[in-house]
Amino acid sequence: MDDYKYILKTEHISKAFGTLEVLKDINLEVEKGEVICIIGPSGAGKSTYLRSLNQLEKITSGKIFIKDELFLHREHNKTIERIAADKQKVMLLEIGMVFQRFNLFPHKTVLENVMVAPIAVRKKSKEEAMKLAKGIIARVGLTEKIDEYPSKLSGGQQQRVAIARALAMEPEIMLFDEPTSALDPELVGEVLSVMKDLAKQGMTMICVTHEMGFAKEVADRVVFMADGMLLEEGTPTEVFENPKNEKAINFLKSVL
Amino acid sequence: MKIIKRIVDIKHWKRSSKIAAIVTMAALALIVVLTVLNLSKVDMMNHASDQVKQMIVDEKDSTRKHLTITYNDLGVINYLSFTTTGAEAIKESYVGFAGQIYNANGGVAKFVSQMVNYTYRMLGCGENVLHGAKLTLLLTTLSMAFGFVLSVFLALGKISKNKIISAISKGYIFFFRGTPLLIQLFVVYFSIPGIFGFSWRGLFDTGDPEAVYKGAFLAALIAFSLNSAAYCAEIVRAAIQSIDKGQHEAAKALGMSYGQTMGKIIIPQSIRRMIPPLCNEFVMMIKDVSLVFAISLMDITTISKNIMTSEGNYLVFLPALIIYLIITAIFTFVFNKVEERLSIYE
Question: What are A130-188's pLDDT values in tens digits?
């Protein structure tokens, strides 16, 4: 099955809201098992880029490949090569996403939150889904909270449930959109440690993050974005210790 | 089921609700006491003036009676009146309450006695008021139920990206909210059968003596359902659109289709937000249903109107108002309880 070079590849991704260009010609290749951290000042288009990967934002132009297969090709706000919707839907299931504000389903318990998509989308039986969900909830260390409603959990616990919910769809790529930005400082650690475990297990991850420590420690590659452009790309050592782009130098000075 | 459990669990009741419950219990207890103290007809008759008593004795074996005796027993309050016509007309009336008898020939007592009399008439006549209340509640509940089901489709239609579906839903809602309910009822009851060449009573067995009422009931049910659908649709739409965009995104990111997202994530959450305005709508509907007097269905309004016509006394509408108030008070209380319970999850 693994006869592809890049699990995810984007070519010339651009996005404009009216005349405001938020993404300008972004190219990125991701190999299986890679952990990529996207850093940069706010307003750089990091989240928009991440959201465009799983169709939460419609790109203006560019190509997205999943496992070397064309997933989307748009130019001037029009789809050029139409991929069958069914096929697109299946390809999208390879991508899981974790949001800054968790977006848990408040009317469902932790277990139900994790079970709902496998049953609805993967057509698993209730028993199968429950077994799967319990296993994943144990992985994020929340077995004792399984029947609680999200409102009864701390932010860190909620984010771990959100990670479990995404994992329950058994994606090959996980997108993290500032997963710790909405958390109290003392709760950041528990979420990062779950993410580190995931990285160790070989999950392909793309994280938009402000946690430079995490990026340094876990990332295989760090990408610096500013003003909708991808300005610097390399190993954490290269980017953090020897940045070339002036904006990257200034940004890193201010955050480190 | 969990929701019902929470509603019933008295430990979670607000203090004001507990007080309301205590007041209700006290009122019920008072009614029991008043029932026990209630006077019999004989007690009341004994209080009559000697002149009347004499007349009763005189006319005991006579076939032509000049004295008209009206006696109403409402269980907690009694009304007795003696009237004759002619030169030396007698007009005596008494109200019995809590073991005491009061003269009701003037002032407040007279007003009270008339209210008692009409309430008794409304409760005691052939098509009595309880029957009317049943009709009102049946029509309200069924119209709201059918209207709600239809309104979900209308609401989803209105926010649909499909322009034709959206336009149809918007047009429907605009039409039914923009025209008087009474005329909508007339159109369904009179115009539609006229246009399509059928009659509402003809839909039921012609041998059925109730056919005319059943036909009118069906027409009213259709008109009220169509109308409440338009009002409920706006409530449902607002509730659906009030759900955070992040919920749509999370469901989409998990690969759920639009239908699954709506059915499993958005609508279940929005139901909680719909309930308070839907309860309001229900109470409004109870009152709107009084329009059925226009097609001669026997509800509370029609019955009181009929009594007014036959008696020529306008006071009969006051007990009708009180009956409506009691019904809406009961529903408002119950709905407040439901809302209180539901807010726990938010």
Answer: 999 999 999 999 999 999 999 999 999 999 999 999 999 999 999 999 999 999 999 99
Q: Is A104 on the interface with B (CB under 8 A)?
A: yes
Angstroms from B249 CA to nearest CA on chain A: 7
- Indicate the pTM of the whole model: 0.73
Question: Cβ–Cβ of B255/A169 closer than 8 Å?
Answer: yes
Q: Give yes or no for residue B345 having a pLDDT over 60.
A: no
Helices marked H in chain A — which ranges?
46-53, 85-92, 110-120, 126-139, 155-167, 185-200, 212-218, 236-241, 246-255
Find how far residue B18's CA is from the centre of its chain.
Answer: 25
**Would you say residue B11 lies in a domain?**
no
Cβ-nearest to B246 among A54, A99, A151: A99
Report CA torsion sign: A208, A210, A212, A218. Answer: negative
Within a domain: residue B293? yes
Are residues B153 and B71 part of one domain?
no
Contact status of A149 with chain B (Cβ, < 8 Å):
yes
B19 in any annotated domain: no
Interface test with A, best of B254, B257, B258, B265 (most A CBs within 10 A): B254
Residues B73, B193, single domain; the answer is no
The set of residues, in sequence order, having a beta carbon less than 8 Å from that of A48 and lying 6+ positions away, is: A15, A22, A23, A57
* ipTM of the complex, rounded to two decimals: 0.92
User: Does residue B3 sit within a domain?
Assistant: no
Please name the member of B247, B249, B254 whose beta carbon is closest to the beta carbon of A121.
Answer: B254
Instruction: Please indicate, yes or no, whether residues B233 and B336 belong to a single structural domain of this protein.
Output: yes
- Please determine, for residue B343, whether its predicted confidence score (pLDDT) is greater than 70: no
Cβ-Cβ pairs closer than 8 A, A with B, add up to 57
Say whether residue A235 is in contact with chain B using an 8 A CB cutoff: no
Question: CA–CA separation, B255 vs B295, rounded Å?
Answer: 53
Predicted confidence (pLDDT) per residue in B131-172, tens digit: 788 889 999 999 999 999 999 999 999 999 899 999 999 999
Chain B residues within 8 A of A169 when measuring between CB atoms: 254-255
Q: Supply the range of the domain harboring residue B176.
A: 132-343
